[in-house]
Design brief:
There is one protein chain. With 402 residues, this protein is mainly alpha-helical. It has 23 helices and no strands. It has one domain. Helix 2 crosses helix 22. It starts with a helix and ends in an 8-residue tail after the last helix. Keywords: Membrane, Transmembrane, Transmembrane helix. This is GPI mannosyltransferase 2.
């Protein structure tokens, strides 16, 4: 047992402390990338088709929070003289849209240049761009850290594991973009390209508020290496957050617009951790209790196993899932995606690498795929806005494209 501990500690510390020169042709797209991308897009297009057959060509764009990100992409938070859609429909406070940070909407804005201002098409392209970037970055993370047996297989599994992510890599959502820049941040940490590392860390911060977690992860890695100067440097992560505060003050006259809505208005944060299990909520809602229990029972072993495979990723997953313990929301699987992706795919790599498991998956391939696609498409249809709401969002563009 002591020998096993020493071996695990050695792998953990080496993955944190050792820098790696960039392998030859490391950044070059290759046939293995094409396989991974084809798998991801096949799943995405299948979900799109199923949703569109049910609810028309804009079905995917209506899934929450898709309209929110599209609106920010069109307006960059400036509604002009028009009443914003959430004030008009739900009587939400004017600063509600501050909860949707600009990292992903900027990609929608970028795609609109290629579609000549066709915002619906730009929105679909933004999904393909962000998931494509994630596939590219995720596989290279696995390669540079040498943390799984088959990087191509693990990256292909990303299209369906965790199952909740099947939905969120197929709709307008910030998770794929956030995960892509988390992977890039850890890659640039490993090869010691500090300018690009910090650029990716900052982009994480303007994509999701949890971007602070990747800055904290890299700071702890430097601390474990006793590299105090670079550990202190990671406090510059907060520059991106300060920039967001300044932007919110200018746009909404509220320094803490994001926190005011999510924490005060919505009560998203609870204390103590695991409040649903041990707090005053008791056992009044068994659906949420079981959701929390199952999530952490599945996740925790994966996080522990990560420490023997990839130290920086293990630290990130631990920090992120510690944050998830204080969330007060029924859809904990969605909020936990950035941590669970690494825990399930890398932590349980021995499971996915097993020939028995692979043969079982192949044998049940078609029924399993149909089941997963039915689940994803069905879930999407339960959480969409109305056609009139989406049309009003698109009306903020200077021309009509519907």
């Amino acid at each position: 047992m002591l020998q096993d501990f020493r071996s695990t500690w050695s792998r953990f510390y080496n993955s944190v402390a050792e820098t790696t020169p960039v392998p030859d042709k490391f950044w070059h797209p290759d046939l293995e990338d094409a396989k991974c991308l084809a798998t991801m897009y096949l799943v995405t297009f299948s979900i799109w088709l199923s949703a569109m057959l049910t609810d028309g060509p804009l079905a995917i764009l209506k899934y929450w929070d898709g309209p929110n990100y599209i609106y920010v992409g069109i307006t960059l938070y400036d509604s002009g003289t028009k009443v914003d859609p959430w004030k008009r429909t739900f009587s939400y406070p004017y600063y509600y849209i501050a909860c949707h940070l600009p990292g992903y909407p900027l990609i929608i804005k970028l795609m609109s240049f290629f579609t000549f201002g066709h915002w619906a098409l730009a929105s679909y392209l933004s999904i393909l761009f962000s998931t494509g970037l994630l596939v590219y970055a995720f596989r290279r993370l696995l390669i540079i850290y040498d943390c799984v047996n088959n990087p191509t297989l693990t990256t292909m599994l990303l299209s369906v594991i965790p199952t909740r992510f099947m939905i969120y890599h197929s709709v307008i959502a910030s998770e794929p973009t956030f995960l892509a820049f988390v992977c890039l941040s850890l890659i640039f940490y490993k090869i010691q390209n500090i300018p690009l590392m910090m650029t990716c860390v900052w982009y994480c911060c303007i994509t999701r508020i949890e971007g602070i977690s990747i800055g904290a992860t890299i700071g702890l890695c430097y601390l474990l290496r006793l590299d105090i100067a670079h550990a202190l440097m990671m406090f510059t992560t907060f520059l991106a957050d300060f920039a967001l505060l300044i932007m919110h003050k200018k746009l909404f006259n509220e320094w803490l617009a994001y926190f005011k809505f999510n924490f005060s208005h919505q009560g998203l944060i609870s204390w103590p951790p695991l409040y649903k299990l041990i707090g005053s909520a008791g056992f009044t809602d068994m659906v949420e209790i079981n959701t929390f229990l199952l999530y952490f029972l599945l996740l925790t072993p994966g996080v522990i196993l990560l420490y023997g495979r990839c130290g920086p990723v293990a630290i990130f997953a631990s920090i992120f899932n510690a944050y998830v313990t204080i969330l007060f929301h029924i859809d904990i699987y969605r909020y936990g995606i950035p941590g669970s992706v690494f825990s399930f795919l890398i932590g349980y790599d021995r499971l996915w690498s097993s020939s028995q498991i692979q043969n079982t998956l192949l044998a049940s391939g078609l029924p399993l795929i149909v089941l997963l696609l039915t689940y994803a498409a069905g879930q999407i249809m339960t959480n969409v806005c109305g056609n009139d709401f989406l049309e009003y969002v698109f009306s903020f563009a200077r021309s009509e494209y519907l």
